Amino acid sequence: MSVTLAVAIERFPLNVPFVISRGAKTDAVVVAVTLSNGTTSGHGECTPYARYGETPESVVAAIEAAIRIPGALESRAVLNTALPAGAARNALDCALWDLEAKSSGVSVAELAGVKPATAVETCFTLSLDTPEAMARAAREAAAHRLLKLKLGGDGDMARMAAVRQARPDARLVADANEAWTEDMVGPFLGAADESRFELIEQPLPAGADDMLDGLMHSVPVCGDESVHTRADLAALVHRYAAINIKLDKTGGLTEALALRKAALDAGLQVMVGSMVATSLAVAPAFLVAHGAQWADLDGPLLLASDRDPPARFEGGLLHPPPPQLWG
Q1: Does the pLDDT value for residue 322 go beyond 90?
Q2: Among 28, 168, 231, 265, whose CB has the most other CB atoms within 10 angstroms?
Q3: Strand 242-246 relative to strand 221-223: parallel, antiparallel, unpaired?
Q4: Neighbours of 246 (CB within 10 A)
Q5: Residue pLDDT, tens place only, 46-99
Q6: Nearest CA among 175, 184, 181, 278 for reference residue 225
Q7: Is 221 left (phi over 0), alpha (psi -120 to 50) or beta?
Q8: What's the pLDDT score for residue 1?
Q9: 82: phi then psi, degrees, rounded to nearest 5
Q10: Which residues contact 206 (CB under 8 A, 6 or more apart)?
Q11: Where in the chain is the domain with CATH 3.20.20.120?
Q12: Strand ranges (DSSP E) for the chain?
C-alpha cells in the first residue's frame, strides 16, 4: 500500500527566551511530518538549524522532494541512502519507525533491539547570561540535579564559578557552542575543573579544533558541531573524549543508533541531545540515551505548551514516551 505524506511548519512559544552564544530565540520552530498507509499514521519532527544552512522552508522542500524518490517513504534503508543527514531525513526516518511500530503493534524499542531505560536523568539548560543571573537560575532549578550551562567566551570562568557556588550539590556540564578561542581553552578548562564540571561541549569552532588533538586536560571535551554521523568519527577520536548525538544531525534514529554503537566501540563517551523542540522530537532520542553517559533532552521543558500527550518529566528524570505520542 502506498504511503502519503503531510508536512507542516509549526511554532511553539517558549516560557522565556533561550539564549546561546549565537543569539536568542523566543519560540521553537519545527517541521512535523505524518506518513499514512491508509489505516495507520506515523509521526516525526525535526528542527531546522541555520548553523547547518537549514531553514524551515528548505527542510519542507527536501521532505516533499522525497516523494519523487522510489521507496524513500516506505523504506528506511532507501531513505538513508537517498537523503543526506540532516533535519529533513530525521523527520522522515522517525516517522517511518513510528509507522512501522503502530502498524505492527511492536514498539520501536523492540524493533530496533534497544532495551530502553525506565527513565533517564536529563540536563536542565541554563541560558547564557551574566554570572549572577545564571547563578539565580541555577538556584531556581533546585528540582534538577544535572545542569547544563550555555557559555559564550569572555566571562565564562565567572559564570562557571558562580553556578557552582549557587549549586554545590549539582552535576554540571557546559556548552560553549564554538565560542572559545584557542587562548581560552587552557585556562577555561582549568576553571571548569576547579568548579567540578563533568564535560565541556564544543569549545572551538568545528573545523578549527585541531589544537585539541592530544591535548591533556582533566575535564572531558565533547564534540557537537564537529560530529554528525559515523563518517566524522575517525578524524575526531583523538580530539574529543565524548560526542553529542542529535537526531537532527544524524538524519534520524537509524543513524543515531549506529553512531552511538560506533562511538562506544571507539572508546568515546556519549551525550544524547536535541534542539529546542517538542516531546515528539525527544521521544526517539530517548531510545538513544540508553547506555549514554549524559542526556540533554529538556527541550519540552522550555516550551509554554507541548504535544498532547507530552513526554513525562519528574524531578529531573525523563520517562519513556507514551506510545500515543511516538513509538
Answers
A1: yes
A2: 28
A3: parallel
A4: 26
A5: 999 999 999 999 999 999 999 999 999 999 999 999 999 999 999 999 999 999
A6: 175
A7: beta
A8: 57
A9: -80, -35
A10: 178, 225, 226
A11: 120-318
A12: 4-20, 23-36, 41-46, 120-121, 124-126, 146-150, 171-175, 197-201, 221-223, 242-246, 269-273, 294-296, 313-314, 317-318
CA–CA separation, 81 vs 91, rounded Å? 15
What percent of the chain has a predicted confidence (pLDDT) above 90? 92
For residue range 231-286, what is the model confidence (pLDDT) as tens digits? 999 999 999 999 999 999 999 999 999 999 999 999 999 999 999 999 999 999 99
Each residue of 84-125: pLDDT tens digit?
A: 999 999 999 999 999 999 999 999 999 999 987 789 999 999
CA 80 to centroid of chain Cα atoms: 19
Nearest to 169 by CA among 70, 316, 268, 17: 316
Is 16 exposed, middle or buried (CB count within 10 Å of its CB: 0-12, 13-18, 19+)?
A: exposed
State pTM to two decimals: 0.96
The Cα 184–Cα 215 span in angstroms is 14
Continuous H helices in 48-181: 56-65, 76-82, 87-104, 108-112, 131-140, 156-166
- Quote the CATH superfamily of domain 120-318: Enolase-like C-terminal domain (3.20.20.120)
For domain 4-105, the CATH class is alpha beta
Angle at 93 between CA 87 and CA 96, to 5 degrees: 145
Residues of the chain within CATH 3.30.390.10 domain(s) are 4-105
Q: Across the strands, what pairs with 10? A: 30
Cell of 34: 505524518
Which residues are annotated as catalytic?
150, 246
